[in-house]
Amino acid sequence: MRILSEGIPLLLALLLTVHPAAGAARKIIIDTDPGTDDAIAIMLALNSPELDVRALTIVPGNVTTAKGLDNALRMMSLAGRCDIAVAAGARQPLFQKLTTAEFFHGQNGLGNVELPVSHCQADVRFGPDLIIEMVHANPHEITLVPLGPLTNVAMAIQKDPSIVPLVKEVVLMGGSVSGGNVSGAAEANIHNDPEAAQLVFQAGWPVTMVGLDVGNMTLLTRKHIETLARHPGPVSDFIYKVAVFRIAFSEKLGAAGAAMYDPLAVGVAIDATLVEAPLLHVDVETKGEFTRGETVANRNGRNELNVLARFADGDH
Predict the structure, then answer these.
(1) Of 14, 110, 182, 275, which has the most beta carbons under 10 Å away?
(2) CA distances for 162 relative to 114, 156, 203, 265, angstroms
(3) CB contact at 8 A, 76 and 84
């Protein structure tokens, strides 16, 4: 995948303004580990008439599930959207210990920006169960937008494989075809639960992988967020403060701005023409000593079985 040159300013326009929807809104479930860029992505989705956010399911990743649930509920309350179901999901990855990323997202996961206590209540259903129920209630209409590790989505598949043909599409943030950020090979979301990611990639539904490589080209700078500063309000003030945190952190690492990984995935759910996405077969490495969590993309677009062919002349 590559982001088109005209896609970068369009994504930033989506981030900073609201546009009228052109047709029926797309029903989505956001699976998230909020997370600074998750927060920006969620607010983008809530303020985009092209999207009908049906639920948030919380997965451990950037923060624990408990902290992620609290963050999500506070954001829903801030946005005045207590009508949207918010449900806690898995507590741990499928087969490894949880590693969180407060060093990157701040101690509270939201760039140390404190939000008021939420007026919203958590949905009592288990996150994967909520995904299953909503997909069956809306066959061929739900797009899953996972912004964190893929544990919840994988658990939903394991519990009820019949949801796979009923999901319209999966647009996920994760992976890379050109190296990682937590290792030389692996991107954080996939690395945090490689077995879950392999289940999701091999399930048989349409998957758009919005990877690290394209996210790194979508930079939010101080100049871009001046628009938010000129239009104060509860949500815009929150996003501005989170963006300042992310930009300052990125500048310390020598970057010109903060990569909008999760917002780009939501942007692609809004408008697929933001990016150019070739059809590739992707496997997730689950056993490699140095490559665990790598998304291995076959440029030929098919699964290579590495069968040794022997020809009549003895060559092979």
Answers:
(1) 110
(2) 41, 10, 10, 25
(3) yes
Number of structural domains in the chain: 1
Give a yes or no: residue 155 inside a domain. yes
Whether the CB-CB separation of 110 and 34 falls below 8 Å is answered with: yes
Domain boundaries, position 226: 2-298
Per-residue pLDDT of the chain (316 residues; tens, 9 = 90+): 454 444 555 555 556 555 555 568 999 999 999 999 999 999 999 999 999 999 999 999 999 999 999 999 999 999 999 999 999 999 999 999 999 999 999 999 999 999 999 999 999 999 999 999 999 999 999 999 999 999 999 999 999 999 999 999 999 999 999 999 999 999 999 999 999 999 999 999 999 999 999 999 999 999 989 888 888 899 999 999 999 999 999 999 999 999 999 999 999 999 999 888 889 999 999 999 999 999 999 866 555 554 444 444 444 4
Report the alpha-carbon distance of residue 310 to residue 5 in Å, rounded. 46
Residue 270 lies in a domain: yes
> Which of 35, 132, 144, 130 is CA-nearest to residue 88?
130
DSSP-assigned beta bridge partners for residue 258: 220
pTM of the prediction?
0.91
Nearest Cα residue to 154 out of 187, 193, 96 = 193
Give the position of tokens 């797009």. 143
CATH number, domain at 50? Answer: 3.90.245.10
Cα–Cα dist 120/75, whole Å:
9
Q: Give the integer Cα–Cα distance in Å for 115 and 86.
A: 17
Query: d(Cα 64, Cα 293) in Å, to the nearest integer?
Result: 20
Strand 26-32, strand 2-3: pairing: unpaired
Q: In the numeric block, which tokens belong to residue 279?
A: 């059809």
In a domain, 284, yes or no: yes
